[in-house]
Amino acid sequence: MIIKSLVSSLVLLIVSFIIIHVYGENFHIRKVSNGNHHETIRRLQSLKASLTRHDSIASTPSSFSPSPSPSSHPNEGMNNPRVFHVTSYGADPTGNSDSTEAILAAIADATNVLSEGHLMEGINNLGGAQVNLEGGNYLIRRSLMLPVSGVGNLMIHGGTLKASDDFPIDGYIIDLSSTSSNEKDSYNFEYITLKDLLLDSNFRGGGISIINSLRTNIDNCYITHFTTNGILVQSGHETYIRNSFLGQHITAGGDKAERNFSGTAINLQGNDNAVTDVVIFSAQIGIMVTGQANIFSGVHCYNKATGFGGTGIYLKLPGLTQTRIVNSYMDYTSIVAEDPVQLHISSSFFLGDANIVLKSMKGVLNGVTIVDNMFSGSNQGVEIIHLDKSNSPFHQIDQVIVDRNIARGMSLKATVAKMSMQGNGTLWNVDFNNVLLFPNLIKNVQYSLSSTGRSFPRHAIRNVSDNRVVIQTNKVVTAKVFITVDQSMVN
Ligand SMILES: *[C@@H]1O[C@H](CO)[C@@H](O)[C@H](O)[C@H]1NC(C)=O
Ligand SMILES: *[C@@H]1O[C@H](CO)[C@@H](O)[C@H](O)[C@H]1NC(C)=O
Ligand SMILES: *[C@@H]1O[C@H](CO)[C@@H](O)[C@H](O)[C@H]1NC(C)=O
Questions:
Q1: Does residue 260 line the site of ligand 1, with CB under 6 A?
Q2: What pLDDT, on the 0 to 100 scale, is given for residue 388?
């Protein structure tokens, strides 16, 4: 009841808005041609009628069939509607019986509309055709695939799809891979939008796979109960995953079975994709990345705590990483990067001893900036950046900047450090080992010596080794030295 009255007051609001708008418009018209009042009323009435009609269609979806809807303003688009309602094809919105064939039939019709030219060469423009799930919950027994490749500008939206108990365990609920043997050079699909969907893989396979496609949108989806990947992206580019929730198990953290989480929420095996404003609440690996030039922003990972063997974001692109992670929240889960070359991590929050692990494969670390992040831990001495040298030490370190991070209850590490030391004598021996990230590496030192006594000493850097700096004066003085060291300077 509450919802119903809410809806009607909303409709009223919209209508009154339109009245104001139309009257405003009419006011303007009246200046030009006098006495247009009847026309305005007529337009208002037809508008109101169309609103009510729309409302009744929405509440009785099964009575709707894709046929021309009446309109007081006939235009070509209206005579050729491209919204395909799955219940019109016999899909069962209660989820009791198998809806695979019905939904596939709706998809087939949607991909069969009169093409409006091309997007990329070889991609027919479907003009924005929609497969509407009408808020239903549908059981499916095999992957939903498009019957033809080489189409684009299509949306599938608005409902729940659940894998049946006999769904193929290597399948994906929505599988955008090619069904036809297309030429190697062309993309399978372009501008396919999957929106407002709950995908339940029923612990049989994955949620969505996007293969060799361009400009795919995954927007406001909830993907759960996957055993392989929540979302798999393979080759192609520009898959945009946004405003979505992914979790192998439906939990809200601190789950007893967390140690057993096994799936990967997002598996990016392609370039130029974006994951923005996405929460990954359970999986062994939040995002596995093996393609370049992907960006992650507003990603919150609390999938499987690093302490239990989980990883938030795993960058497995040694030698050419080219990844940006910004404005994200690593919640008890870490970022792991193998031999990173060009990696940027900034403005992110690491909670619960979550950190960044730079894992040496061949000892390469190049072009890495980790700046302006916030770390919070439990005083276990966990380093905010950990160098995993189990395979090899890092021996090619260049342009690595770790600076301006802040830590609470964790061990702060940086490539730039400043210290001051008060002393009375001739030697100032300053040790930077507690804070510098790399052992035995100082590429640049600057210092100043402040002495207020009567004498005016001569002084010099006498030794820089093992992350220690020694300053010496030619006579005994009471002085304070200020030293800045840098491990990132390009030689
Ligand atoms: C995790 O998996 C192991 C081995 O399969 C099993 O013995 C254990 O009960 C599981 N734990 C939970 C909490 O589900
Ligand atoms: C500094 O040390 C010298 C001798 O080592 C001593 O004579 C002098 O009083 C000391 N000055 C201060 C300020 O401690
Ligand atoms: C600098 O100090 C190290 C010990 O930290 C020492 O082994 C080395 O010989 C010193 N170098 C010079 C030039 O004194």
A1: yes
A2: 98
pLDDT digits (tens, 9 = 90+) for 365-406: 999 999 999 999 999 999 999 999 999 999 999 999 999 999
CA of 468 to the centre of ligand 3 (A): 10
- Assess whether the C-beta atom of 463 lies below 6 angstroms from ligand 3: yes
Counting ligands in written order, the one closest to the CA of 470 is 3
- Nearest-CA residue for ligand 1 atom 5 is 260
Q: Rounded to the nearest 5°, which phi and psi values hold at 51?
A: -65, -45
**pLDDT classification of 157: cutoffs 50, 70, 90:** very high
Q: The domain containing residue 328 runs over which residues?
A: 264-272+279-414
Distance, CA 250 to ligand 3 centroid (Å)?
A: 58
* Contact status, residue 482 vs residue 448, Cβ threshold 8 Å: yes
Total tally of structural domains belonging to the chain: 3
Cα separation, 198 vs 5, whole angstroms: 27
366 shares a domain with 217: no
* CATH code of residue 205: 2.160.20.10
**Ligand sitting nearest the alpha carbon of 475:** 2
Ligand 3: centre distance to CA 418 (Å): 21
